[in-house]
Amino acid sequence: MKICIIGSGSTYTPELIEGLINKRDSLPVTELYLMDIDERKLTIVGGLCKRMIEAANLPCKVVMTMDYEEALQNADFVLAQIRVGKLPARVKDEKIPLKYNLIGQETCGIGGMFKGLRTIPAMLKIVKLMEKCCPNAWLINFSNPSGMIAEALLNYTNVKMMGLCNVPINMIDGIKKQMNLPNAEVEYIGLNHFTYVTKILDNGIDYLQEAIKQGVNTEAMKNIPASGFTPEEIAAIGAIPSCYLEYYYFKDSKLAKLKASPKTRGEVCMELEEQLLELYQNSALHTKPEQLSKRGGARYSEVAISLVDSIWNDKNDIQVVNILNHGALDFLADDDAIEIRAYIGKDGAKPIPAHFDNDHIKEYIKQVKAYEKHAVKAAIYGDRNEALRALVMNPLVGDLKTAEACFDELYEAHKEYLPQFNKELNKDEK
Q: Three-state DSSP class for 254?
C-alpha cells in the first residue's frame, strides 16, 4: 500500500505517522511519500517521521519529495493537509476583517471564505494530477475549510474523496463522558464547523433532553477562545451545538474578544510551529512530542488513519465525514456536502439518515449551505459577484457595503494566491 501525504511539512504530520504505526497490524503500508513545496519544513518534519517509522520497525520505505507527480504515482491513498499562503495568509484572514468589525477566523466568516478561495483551486490541481497518476486512489482531505472543499471536489470533479475534521470525535466522546453513556449512539449533523448533536441514544432511549437540562457543553478546541453555552442557551437552540457555533451565536462577544486579544491565533500558531520545528530537529527524538497537542489537531491521526483503515479493510463501521447528502438530511439537496455519520467501507461512505424536529437548526444550516454554494462558485470561476452574494448570505457578514470593502482589501492582500480572479492572467488558459 502506498500512502502519499500532500503538505507533509505541516507540524501535524507526526500525528498521522503515529496513527499509521498504531494501525500497523491492519494497514500494510509499504511506501510513504511525504510531499511539500517548503523544502525546509519537509526536511525537518520528514526527518522526524522517518525516525518514528524506523524506531517502530515499520517495514515501510519513506520518500521525501517536492514533486507532486512522484508523490502521487500509483498511490492508494492521498492525504491532503495544505495551507495556501502558509500561516502568514491565515494571520491576514484573521486581522483584516477586524478593521471592518467582522469576525476574523480561519474557517468562519470572510476570512474562512478567503481560505476557501485560495485552497479550492489548489485542490482542483491536485485532483487533476491524481486523475493522471493514481486515478483509483482515495483522497482524504483535512485542509480547511473542509466542508467547502468537499462541496467543490464532489460536485465539480469525479475524484473519490471524503473530508475530515477532528471536532466530531472530540465532541461525541466528550458528550458520552459527561452523560456517562459510553456506548451511546450520538447523532451528529450539519456542515463542517457548523454542527449539532440532535440525539443521544442508549438502549432505545434518547437522552438529548436530559443532556440539555444538564447544560451539557461541548469541549472547546485548543484553537478557539472558549465562551461556552449556558444551559438556557442550549435549551433555546434545542440541540447541543459544537464549539465553532459560538462564533454564530455569540457574534458580538466573540468579535470583542478577538479585537482585545494581543495576538491572533495564527500568530500564536506561527510561534508554536517554530518551537515544534526546533524540537523536531533533535535527532534523538523519534516520537510525537507532547507540545504538538497545543496546535489544536487533537486526535487527527486517530480520525484520518481510522478512515483509511475502514476503506482498505471494508469495515463498514460508523465515522463522521464530509460527503454528499444523498437524502440523509431531507431538508437539503442531494448534492449538498454535509458533515454526518456514515458507514465507511471499500466503496466509500454511505450517510446515515438523520430525522429530527428542529426547524431553527434546519433553517440555519440551509442559510450557511447557501453561503457555501456561492463561495464555492466564486472560488472555481473567480467571480467577485458570487463572492459578494456568498458574504451577504453568511451570518457573520450580511452587510453588502462592508462585505465589498473587506473583500477588496483581503483580495489585495492575497491576490498572488487568487489567479482565478485575475482574468488577464487567465485568458491564455481559456
A: helix
In DSSP terms, 323 is beta-bridged to 338
C-alpha cell at 267: 500568530
Supply φ then ψ for residue 176, to 5 degrees. -60, -45
Beta strands in 203-360 (DSSP E): 205-206, 240-241, 317-324, 337-345, 348-351
Sign of CA dihedral 233, 237, 240, 244: negative
Task: For residues 131 and 137, give the distance between their C-alpha atoms in angstroms, rounded to a whole number.
Answer: 9
| Helices of type H across 180-284 | 208-214, 231-237, 246-249, 251-260, 265-280
CA distances from 322 to 105, 141, 154, 229, 314 (A): 21, 9, 10, 25, 18
pTM listed for this prediction: 0.94
Residue 209 burial (CB < 10 Å; 0-12/13-18/19+)? Answer: exposed
- CA end-to-end span of the chain: 38
Contact 304, 22 (CB under 8 A): no
Residue-by-residue pLDDT tens, the chain, 430 positions: 999 999 999 999 999 999 999 999 999 999 999 999 999 999 999 999 999 999 999 999 999 999 999 999 999 999 999 999 999 999 999 999 999 999 999 999 999 999 999 999 999 999 999 999 999 999 999 999 999 999 999 999 999 999 999 899 999 999 999 999 999 999 999 999 999 999 999 999 999 999 999 888 876 555 565 668 989 999 999 999 999 999 999 999 999 999 999 999 999 999 999 999 999 999 999 988 887 777 666 687 789 999 999 999 999 999 999 999 999 999 999 999 999 999 999 999 999 999 999 999 999 999 999 999 999 999 999 999 999 999 999 999 999 999 999 999 999 999 999 999 986 444 444 3
Question: How is residue 25 annotated by DSSP?
Answer: T
411 is catalytic: no
Within the chain, what is the greatest distance between any pair of CA atoms?
62
Active-site entry in 68, 244, 280, 300: 244
Could you give phi then psi for residue 338, rounded to 5 degrees? Answer: -130, 165
| Alpha-carbon dihedral angle through residues 54, 57, 61, 66, given to the nearest 10 degrees | -30
- Residue 76 neighbours by CB under 8 Å, 6+ apart: 1, 2, 3, 134, 136, 137, 138, 312
- At residue 253, what are phi and psi to the nearest 5 degrees? -70, -35
H or E, element range at 199:
strand 194-202
